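Q&A FORM
Asked by: J.P.
Topic: structure of Nitroreductase family protein

PROVIDED:
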Amino acid sequence: MNARAAEEISHAVHAAVEAAVWAPSIHNTQPWAFAVSGDEISLRADSDRRLRVGDPEGRQMLISCGAALFNVRLALRALGYESRVKVLPEPDRPALLATIRLEPANRPDDDTLSLHAQIERRRTHRAGFTTLPVPDRVIETLVRQAAAEGARLTPIRSEAAVRIVAALTGAAQDVQAQDRVLSLELIRWARPPGSGRRDGVPADAYPRSATRTQPHFAQRDYARGHNWGGDTDLAATSPGVVAVLTTPGDSREEWIGAGQALQSVLLHACGENVTAAFHTQALEMRHLREFLREELCSGEYPQMIMRFGVTLDVGGTTRRPVSEVLDGA
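REPLIED BY: S.T.
REPLY: Here is the structure written out as tokens.
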């Protein structure tokens, strides 16, 4: 490999890691770490950032890392490379989630470049949506993109089923709010106004007083009694389109795949000016997750509950610098 080619590859792998850190993660924990060796990127789980109470098996941590993996693949494709990915390549190193080796490819098409442009634009929403509808064609596109990554995105069209999901979310939230240890874990990742931290949920990323949707989808209480939060659109009362992301099985590989599917869906939605809100409370309680699997998910394993909609509010976000997640950066 000549010096120019080596320099181009070095630029590409660093750009891919820069894109990866913009992936969504539970409570913005950013539980990933990267290493680079020549034309290969290694993605590892940062277990120090796993939610030991809320995510004891690391399922949500691996979904978060899967979303980061999708960003790596997309960024490389936008730079004219394809990715040869090996998921869980070494069974005796469980923290090593994937290796990504660069391979030359054709020039990226306009769709790839457009999708890549959404990486830093995407935001998580934590309130209701406006009554502006999400076009059916957009939902159909999101369903196809999830399928392309090996997962299933199912919009919940039945009003009764939507009420069930909302009720389970509220029940889980009420139970979790009474759990002191779980609440302390949440507080760890709730950033007060003016905080200089580059992880966790910033105070302007959720509304100070959210308008209730019908049916109501309970939100995490990051403020915990403080007058934190930003202003919100008081007319944003629609729950939006409720959907569940599922996988046939529930292995670590499928969790990583679910994360890749999730990020593909979110970026395609963002390109249509559609935002997503997440609700994982019920999925963090084994019996509620099993109820959803059996009663609403046709036996598949629910990995994420989402609402899609249109909002005029843009919440804040922040990410750690690449130097903190890339070995030797």
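FOLLOW-UP: The longest helix spans residues 59-78.
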